[in-house]
Every structure is written in C-alpha cells, then in structure tokens.
Design a protein that fits this description.
mainly alpha, about 120 residues, single chain, 4 helices
C-alpha cells in the first residue's frame, strides 16, 4: 500500500508546479497523480482558488467569499504551499513517515475542540 504522506507530497509538488507555471504565464504541466494524491490536489487547489478569489470554497457556496482586501496573490499561495511541503518533510524527519499526518490530525482535533469556546468568547 502506498504511504499517505507520499500522496500529500506528490499533491503539494503538483500544486507548486501548477502555480509556478501560471505565475510565469505558462501552461501548467500535465499531472499524473495516484488517486488519493489527486483527491488531495483537488481539495487543496479548491482552497487556493478560493483564496485567490476565483472560486467558491464549496459547491453549495456555504463559505463566504474572501474579502477583496484579504485575497492572496499567486506568490502568496506558492509561499504557503512551499511552507506546508517543508513542514511535511520536517515532521516526517522528526516523527517518522506518518509524522506530518499525525501532527496535522492532532492540530485539527485541537482546533475542533477550541472552536465552540471561540464562538462563545466572541458573543
């Protein structure tokens, strides 16, 4: 079975290539990704396109559009993608081949637990 972290890295690499090509006014290269890596790519690309102000975050338009003064540039998106890719490598070196996935799972669990408290605090 293919390691999930490899799919994350492959998707991030493909996204970086896609936005580097766009930044240089070139056609993005064809991407050949495993099915799981393709799903990661598509989900992350949707967020990138939303942050660029090009697409809704979801098909049901539940998430509001990004305010014009908070839109990201392609350079911003590339910097974020490269930082995430570096984080994947760092966490895998420190905690083994599933290190990043374990870290990010814990991060989202903590965010979920703090979310109701944040909502209460803002009222």
């Amino acid at each position: 079975m293919r390691d999930e972290t490899v799919d994350v890295i492959d998707a991030l690499d493909a996204l970086v290539r896609r936005y580097v090509a766009e930044e240089g006014n070139r056609t993005p290269p064809r991407r050949f990704l495993a099915p799981r890596a393709a799903r990661v790519f598509e989900a992350a690309e949707q967020v990138c396109e939303w942050r660029l102000g090009r697409k809704a975050l979801s098909e049901d338009n539940e998430a509001p559009p990004v305010p014009l003064d908070q839109l990201n540039s392609i350079a911003d998106i590339l910097a974020c993608l490269k930082r995430i890719r570096k984080s994947v490598h760092t966490w895998n070196e420190q905690a083994g081949r599933q290190g990043y996935l374990d870290y990010i799972s814990l991060f989202f669990e903590q965010m979920q637990r703090s979310r109701p408290r944040l909502a209460r605090d803002s009222t």
